[in-house]
Amino acid sequence: MSLPPLSPPIAFVLTANRSLSKPFYSKILGLPLLGEDDFAVAFDLGHGAMLRLTDMASHIPSPHTVLGWRVEDIAATMADLTAKGVAFQVYDGMGQDENGVWSAGPVKVAWFLDPEGNNLSISQFDRSGGAIVA
What pTM was computed for the model? Predict the structure, then answer.
């Protein structure tokens, strides 16, 4: 059996300290709170998708991106997040610009960390044509 068509995804980001991470996702990123239980806090990602910020006491963040958002204007989104205290990451050898934006053809990506070090990203895709893998 396959997944039902258009089934909204549920993303999971692990946290060792919910009291530190919850305000970041709700206040800094502006995600609407759906609910909270003994295991996780749930946020609305839009279009039926959900993020579960899930408790794991022994969690150690890995360096790869765990969650990202598609944005219309990466520069404006970066300015808004920077004004809220978010620092964008610059990685050696990635060829990012002075603001931390990496460009590859029609795609621009910038990375930032949540308070526990989970790697998050924002991406802008050029709509001028050509194949785009989101």
Answer: 0.91
